[in-house]
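Re-run with default settings, no changes from the original entry. Doing this only to confirm the output is reproducible before filing.
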Amino acid sequence: ELGVPEEKFAATCVLMDKLEKVPIDAIQGDLEELGLEKSTIEKLLTVLTNKSIESISEVLPPESQAVAELSQLFKLCEAYGISDWVMFDASVIRGLAYYTGVVFEAFDRQGVLRAIAGGGRYDKLLETFGGDPTPAAGFGFGDAVIVELLKERDVLPSFEGSGYDTVVFAMSEDLYSVAIEVASKLRAEGQTVDLILEKKKTKWVFKHASRNEARYCVIVAGNEYENGEVSVKDLSVGEQKAVKIDALRDWVQEVSESE
């Protein structure tokens, strides 16, 4: 819609992505070297300075798909009650050329750090790698930026001592589905559960549970499961007993009342 030939789209995106670090004048010569017409460059630069969908709609054609998609996106943001957290910025251009629609970046409110996350719509990416034509959208986080932000706000969590209610562990791979069922039952009753589906020794599991300040450890083993039971260990006193899987709800209520 802006007159950029498809074969020059990727190179144009790379140049436009530099605008975060350099002024517009610094890339104008490079745009001309791409063979873009002066009118196209002027239109591009005009669009990139717009901060509202209304103003950008005056530059693009009346039936612009870009304007329609952006308008719909901001209507949805309004409906979800997050419009105060979203703003339009035409200069946001992700450096990867596989995007086919809206792109976005997330920043801290103060605007001090670089982008925390970024992504967008890419309808042809899966097809490019041999898959079926599938519309898609996605994003990626910058873990270093998130850690920096959490430290600055003094809210970086400590993963030691997470305070699980219960750790659930299956003694063998064929019991993984049972362990998942048990964990789901406990979570449905409001417990916080750490589910371990790995080949670990029981000793490691108990140490892991203790390190994370779990209250209970549920072991799913073959012999107990044949009887429809699991083994539950109270880590605070070291006592262990068998509990029927069908009675886990009653067990949760029992331990909740005793605390």
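Strands lie at 103-106, 117-121, 137-141, 166-170, 193-196, 216-220, 229-234, 239-244. Residues 125 and 131 are 9 Å apart (CA to CA).
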